[in-house]
Amino acid sequence: MQPMLNIAIRAARSAGDFIARQSGNIPNLRIEAKTSNDFVSEVDREAEARIIDTLLKAYPDHGILAEEAGKQSGDGEFEWIIDPLDGTTNFLHGFPHFAVSIALRQGGRLQQAVIYDPIKQELFTASKGEGATLNNRRIRVSKPKTIDGALIGTGFPFRAHEHFPAYQAMFAEVFGAAADIRRAGSAALDLAYVAAGRLDGFWEIGLKPWDIAAGALLIREAGGLIGDFSGEGQYLQTGNVVAGNPRLFNDLVERLQPHLTPALKQ
Ligand code: IPD
Ligand code: CA
Ligand code: CA
User: Which residue of 207, 212, 235, 241 sits with most ligand 1 atoms within 8 Å of its CB, as the best mutation to test the pocket?
Assistant: First the structure.
């Protein structure tokens, strides 16, 4: 296995197991609102510090882009993109669905990915060109099929309410065609589930690079596609994401297009 993937797994397991232990202690946690509907706890911060410590002990020259601590420049070649706890709202409510997400970008390309769900003890990993795994078993996106019968994941624009009317139109379009829709509350796990074929497709408005980076490599290595709302590759910049098995990806891009506002077309 790639040594850098090994280090990322060590970091994700140590943070994830810490988060799982803290999930019994939620009433005693210090919680702050970063902005409206956007909370952070001392668990997010401590988990992130553990991850960064593990990564930088092994690779002191690497750069960091982490949700809570921000950007730390490194050698300009390697950058770790970290969401220490994806699904904080779930975590704070004792809703057991959240994950640690860690990706490594080298010269602008995603090379390694780890998403770890410490409650279900599911470890999703991918290395560029070597496929994607769940607990060491190879995973693939679901078989191509039409949207009829498909299970689609999504996230609500709960921070950017200005996108809600466009989102409602997108939801009506997809809901009218698919078997059903899930809003499980962790974008990283939604993307991992697309890679594992548990969801046939996914879309969300306004994500951040740390929500997406590891899941994007997992999906590509599992034979799926991920893009922005034009079906192009700007999703890490825009945060607008569509993903799925190749047939569903194209179908979703076409269905969402008519509902894009000028702000969502950028
Ligand atoms: C959030 C989760 C959620 C998604 C939000 C993300 P956080 O991440 O992934 O599913 O809808 O857009 O910000 O804040 O829990 O790390
Ligand atoms: Ca997140
Ligand atoms: Ca987070």
Answer: 207
